[in-house]
Amino acid sequence: MSAHPLTHLKIVAHKTSPLQYAMSAMLLDVEARRLSPRTLQYYREQLEPFIDFLSDARVTTPEQITAHHIRAYLVSLQRRGLASASQHAAARAIRAFCNFMVREELLDRSPMRKVQMPKVDKQTLPAFSPADVRALLKASKFRRDSAMIYFLLDTGCRASEFLALDVGDVDFKTGTVHVRHGKGKKQRVVFLGAKARKALLQFMLERPEAAASEPLWVNLNTRERLTDSGLRQLFQRLGEQAQVANCHPHTFRRSFALWSLRAGMNIYALQQLMGHSDLTVLRRYLALVENDLHEAHRRYGAIDNLL
Fold it and tell me: Among 114, 140, 157, where does a domain finish?
């Protein structure tokens, strides 16, 4: 294979290796494809320590990377005590990086093809109980906070989707919500029930002049769009006040999924409402629901309990 132009960049800047240039090229490709800032951040955070690890092993060019190097890096993450999900996230980023270098003709074949992905430990995903939600609502001092709790639980929106909503994205009469900034730039429609719609309307009574183009969720002091940091800090405070564990934006999404399945919602309908491209995650929730059924049969089964 002929030398790729990136392999000669070290002549221009001695402190930057060809691998670092390759990573920069991949990050530029992510931006050019208009993937989300969070995706860009994910690749940067995962690949920078990997390339530092390779540099310590005196690996500075793409063709020097072997399956052994990748395995050694993944084992180092395991020995540092990182969760299995974090190890898997690192491996996914490395796999994408190697595939990118193959497409760019920096590599003939990906060294990742010989590496098995780390196994992710199966765990029960935290979700709220009805008692948790009642405690959070009781701890809410502002109508906005109550409206957010109802909204997230009734729509299953991701935090980024939730924060990007404008007033005009919600039909207050029907409860239809247009999610315009979904994952992967995909749009979809979700819905608010009567209770969630009522809570939202009560909050909007405090903003009678809000235009359709204004943010739906705002900082109560500045009236600027609520940030991701602001949302997480708000729920952390609410969780502490209500003594509810795992009070994070994504716990509301998990609770929406689990509660919907327990109420009998079709899993394919739930997939559409949550904006999932496949059923992988929802199958984990479905397994929890099946465990509920097994426990119900154990406690109330006709033969064991009546005969």
Answer: 114
